[in-house]
Amino acid sequence: MKLWGGRFTKETNQLVFNFNASITFDQKLFRQDIDGSIAHVSMLAKQEILTDVEKDTIIKGLLSIKEDILNGTLAIDETQEDIHSFVESTLINRIGEAGKKLHTGRSRNDQVALDMKLYTRDEVLHVNDLCKDLLVVINQIMKDNLDTYMPGFTHLQKAQPITLSHHMGAYFEMFKRDRSRLIDIYNRMNYSPIGSGALAGTTYPLDREYTASLLGFAGPTLNSMDSVADRDYLIEFLSALSIIMMHLSRFCEEIIIWNSNEYQFVEIDDAYSTGSSIMPQKKNPDIAELVRGKTGRVYGSLMSLLTTMKGLPLAYNKDMQEDKELTFDAIDTVKGCLALFTGMLATMKFNKSTMVLSAKNGFTNATDAADYLVNHGVAFRDAHGIVGQLVLYCIEKGIALDEMTLEEFKSISPVFDSDIYDAISLETCVEKRNIIGAPGKVAMEKVIQHNETYLKA
Ligand code: ARG
């Protein structure tokens, strides 16, 4: 059933109809469309715009439609223009005259704004939960690896020793911020647009506060034009999703490097890796690569919607129908990536001895050697130069700093004494860094305590 045939004398060109229709993708909104309609008619009856009998008949009809779609006995008819037309026409077929009153005091413009808000509001929480699942896994790895020394990198060059716990802690902070962004978005978007009509509200005495409260909103939106023209909440959500993907992608990039034949810091579980059709020895990190790859696709959705919205005059314009496919795709992509990534991380094996060996072999203790000299009265800039000479000497001899004899140390600077070995041991380098945020065990235990309180809240 077409909702708008009255003022037309010709049939719609079929290509125009197809181009204009959104049912192939907005059918995802059938639950929200029905729930929104139920709240709307409940309010209409409370305001005595519909009778209680009409309201009950409509609600019964709407619930039967929802149930039949869910149990597969009612197929969504893709020859309809959109999900709103499908629900309304099915309702009229099922209950007759009362069904024709459903759309009283409403436009598809505030209806679709409501449906999309209800849909994304739930999805914000789903993504938030998936981020939490990931944080639980990260926190467990942190707890298990307080003593797993590894090199920390800058420029992908070994820099200073840290622990695996500390490295994982960086990702904990990222996904924790992602969750707080999602909650911010939820709170900001949680106002109901229904009752805004096409753009100018309506003359019916609607109780918008009541409809909003039935649907769990904090209240009604305050400008009817903005209500039907606002897609900020989708842009914010796509932006938060893009940042989540950016974090996942960086994590994946590290896992791909760590899983490489050269590093061998980790081994991805067989269940989360794939083989090659020609090279029998291969075990590839495809899941990590795909998550990294799909990041571009989610950014694309964000850029696409920003661009769609940038030139739109108030209020509703059909351009906005383009919000759906890209939002749905981004949500599904991010949820899939989060779930798979969490599984991959939870089953990944860390080659702790390889990590420790790597930390020992890259002069990651050079800064601490310089600090040693400073503690013995040498100015830092001079100490930096002396340790530079030590490193050069070791590179030529193919040894690590702590493999130098004391005589060798002294030949470069007489300030060195036998306590230098303890001062530059991996354990000292890490464990002396115990200010909050640093990799030392005492500091990390405090952070993990924070994490646990946070995860319980
Ligand atoms: N399918 C439309 C959308 O997604 C629904 C709103 C239609 N409103 C209109 N005035 N044509 O935006």
In a few lines, what is going on in this structure?
Helix content is 62%, strand content 5%. With 457 residues, it is mainly α.
Structure description:
The structure is a single chain. With 457 residues, this protein is mostly helical. It has three domains: 5-104, Fumarase/aspartase (N-terminal domain) (Fumarase C, Chain B, domain 1); 109-144 and 161-198 and 218-352, Fumarase C, Chain A, domain 2; 358-456, Ribonucleotide Reductase Protein R1, domain 1 (Orthogonal Bundle). Helix content is 62%, strand content 5%. The chain is built from 19 helices and six strands. The chain has helices at 14-20, 23-26, 30-46, 52-70, 83-95, 108-144, 164-189, 208-214, 224-229, 232-258, 286-309, 323-347, 352-360, 366-375, 380-397, 406-412, 420-423, 426-431, 441-456, and strands at residues 149-154, 157-163, 191-192, 219-220, 266-267, 349-350. The strands form three sheets. A two-stranded antiparallel sheet has the order 1-2. Strands 3-4 form a two-stranded parallel ribbon. The protein is elongated. The two termini are 49 Å apart. 39% of the residues are buried. The mean pLDDT is 97. The site of arginine has 11 residues, from α6.
Task: Summarize the topology.
Blueprint lengths: L13 H7 L2 H4 L3 H17 L5 H19 L12 H13 L12 H37 L4 E6 L2 E7 H26 L1 E2 L15 H7 L4 E2 L3 H6 L2 H27 L7 E2 L18 H24 L13 H25 L1 E2 L1 H9 L5 H10 L4 H18 L8 H7 L7 H4 L2 H6 L9 H16 L1
Parallel strand pairs: 3-4
Antiparallel strand pairs: 1-2, 5-6
Bound molecules: arginine (ARG).
